[in-house]
Amino acid sequence: MLSALAFSAGADTGAKRQNDRAANPPEKTHPVFEFKNESRGAEAYKRIVNAGKAKEFAQFYDIPEDELPNVFKGKQGEMARLDKKGRLFFVDSIEGAVAGDSGATVFETAVDPNKTFFLNSKPDSSKTIYLDFTGHVATGTAWNSSYGIDPINSPAFDTDGSPSTFSASEHSAIQGVWRRVAEDYAAFDVNVTTQEPPADRLVRSGSTDAIYGTRVVITKDFTKSTTSPCGCGGFAYVGVFNSTSDQYKPAYVFQDNLGNNEKNIAEATTHEAGHNLGLGHDGTSTTGYYQGHGTGETGWAPIMGVGYSKNLVQWSKGEYANANNTQDDYLVMQGKGVIFDGDEAGNTPGTAKALTAIVVNGLNSYSTKAILQGPLDVDLFSFSSAIGNVSITTSLAPTSPNVDLIISLLDAQGNTLAQASPENTLNAPLSFSVPAAGTYYVSVQPSGRTAVAGTSDQGYPRYGSAGNYGLSITAPISTANQTPVAMATADKITGTAPLVVNFTGSGSYDPEGALAAFAWDLGNGSTATTANTSTTYTASGVFLASLTVTDAQGATASKSIQIDVKQPVAMVPMSVASITMSNLSAKRVKRAGARVKILDNTGKPVANASISGAWSGIVTGTATVSTDSQGFANFTSPNAKKSGTYVFTVRSVSSTGYTYDTNGNTMTSNSITF
After folding, report:
1. Tell me: the pLDDT tens digits for 31-82?
2. With contact defined as beta carbons under 8 Å apart, do 472 and 393 qualify?
3. b or e along 162-200 (b: 16 or more beta carbons within 10 Å of the residue's beta carbon)?
4. Domain tally, the chain
5. Could you list the residue range(s) of the whole structural domain that residue 34 is in?
6. Residue 529 class from Cβ within 10 Å (0-12 exposed, 13-18 middle, 19+ buried)?
7. Are residues 535 and 598 in the same domain?
8. pLDDT digits (tens, 9 = 90+) for 166-203
9. Residue 576 falls within a domain, yes or no?
10. Cα(427)–Cα(378) distance, rounded to whole angstroms?
11. pTM of the predicted model, to two decimals?
C-alpha cells in the first residue's frame, strides 16, 4: 500500500490539470528522409544518425534523446522499423501470449448480440478508437506499399470458420475485448467503439479539425500470403492519431496469431492504439517487452510492454527496475489530443459529490460509479450517518481492472478516521464505527503496491491507477433531522454596472435526501426559486445575494455572496478634427502624406489614439498609426510611378477612456492630386 495523497483545499487532480491544456494539438512535422528500402534495429538507427537527424527524430516521437538508441537495440530493435520515408512503426511479436482460445470472461451472464456492434464508451467524445471486427479494405496506405498488396482485404473476426456470420461465442469475445479496451482508456476523453463511425470522425481534415481518431482492425494475418510474413500479433505506426492523413492507418491486430484469446486480443488492441497515440515499447535492456511481475490479483505489467499473463495492466512511465523507456504515457497521449476526462467529484468538502440515500434493511444505502483520472486524482463523496457502524465497499471491472484503490473515511473537517488499501487486493473494503451523527466523507484515491522483499515482485506506483470503480456505503439512519447544506457561488463578484451575474446553488444538498426548496434573494429586488439563477445589477453599490435551502422537514440553511457593482467610467468623445494632405515625392518616386488630427469634445488633443486608415485612388493600402502628444498622426502612402490622385480615409479611431464620436468629425477623408 502507498500512502494517501494529502487532503487539502489546495490540492488539484490530474484530470483537472490536464484538462486545462489544449485537446486539439497541432500535428508535428516529421523529419524528411528518403531511403531505398525499409530497415529495422541497428540499421534503422544508423540511418537516422547518418542523416544527422537523431535529435529531430527523438523530438518528433517524444522519446528522450538519450533513450533513442534503446528503441532500436536487441529484441526491441527487431520490432522497431523505419519505412522509406523514415516513419517509425512497430511489428509486435507474440512474445508472452497466452496459448489457446480461452480467456473469454464477460460482464453479463448472457450477451445481447444486438449490442455487439453498437458499443460506445463515450459517444459524445470528439476522439475515437474504432475496434473494427467486421472486416476492412485498405488501399493507398503505407501498409499496401510495405507488403506489396493493394487492396488489403481483411476478413471479419472469425474463430469458428464461418466468416459470414457471428456465433454466440464470437459475440461474447467481441464484447469482452471491447470492455477490456474501454477500461484501459476509461480515464480519457476518447470513445472506444465497435460501431463504425462516419469517416470524418476518424480522418482529420486539417489542423483546426478537433474530431478525429484511429481504426484498429482485428482480423486474421494477411501477411501470411506474402514473401515476408510478420508472424506477429499486430503492427501500427507511431504517433499518427492526430495526423491529417490516413496514409499510416489503420493499426492491425491479428487474432489468429494471438490464439483467438480474448485477453491477448484486447491487450494487443490497446497496445497498437497506444502506438498510434505516440507510445513506444516498455522493455528492459534485455527484453523487447517487459512482461511484468507479481502474481494473482496484483500481478502487474505495463500496457506498452506485454500484459497477456497479468491481471493489472496499466499505463507506465518506466518506474520498474531496468526500464529502458521513461516516456510519460499520459503526456505523450495528450500531445496527440487524448486528455483526461472531466472529474465527477471534487477533492474538497465544498466540491465533494453529495450522495443520495435509499433505505435498505433499515440502513441508509449510498452508491455511485466514478473514474480515477491518474495519479493525482482524489474523488470525495459526502454522506450522512447516525452513530454506529459505517461499511464501505468498492467494485472494479470484473476483467482487466486498471485501478488499485485507497479508501479513506473522513469527518466533516477532513480528518481521517480510517483508511484501507490492502497489499494483495485491488478493492479496499472499510468498516468503522462513527462516534457521532453528521456528515462524513469518503475519499477515493489511486494506490500502488510496495515491493515484496525477497521476491521478484517490485510492486508498482500509483501512476497507472486510472479507470472505473464503484463505491457503496451503508450507514445508520439518524432519528433526528439533519440540517441541509447551502452552497452558493457566483461567476463574478465585482464589475461595472450593468453587471450580469450568474449564481449557482445546485451544489447544495440535504444529507438525508433531496432538498424541498430553493429561495434566492439577490439583493436588488430580484428573487428566484430555482437552484441556479441570474440577475442584472443596473445600479452601483454593494449587494448581498442570499440562497436559502429547505429540506423535507422544514429545516433551512443559508449562504450569502457579496456583489460589488461599480459606477461605469465616463467615456470622453473624440473626433477627427482635420486631415491635411501633402506631396512627399522624391526623385523617381511619387507618394503622398496625410496628417490627421484628433481632438476631444473640449478641443484638447488626444495622445496615443490608434487611427486605422486606408489609401485609395492611384495607390491602395492600409495602415495604423498612433497620435503624438499634440494629437497628430502622420501617414505615408505607398509609392507610385505616375501622377494621379491620392485619397486617404480614416476608418476607425480608438483610445482607452475615449469613445470615437463620428458625428463630431470635421472630415473622414481628403485627397491630393499631383
Report:
1. 999 999 999 999 999 999 999 999 999 999 999 989 999 999 888 888 999 9
2. yes
3. eeeebeeebbbbbbbbbbbbbbbbbbbbbbbbbebbeee
4. 5
5. 28-86
6. exposed
7. no
8. 999 999 999 999 999 999 999 999 999 999 999 999 99
9. yes
10. 16
11. 0.72
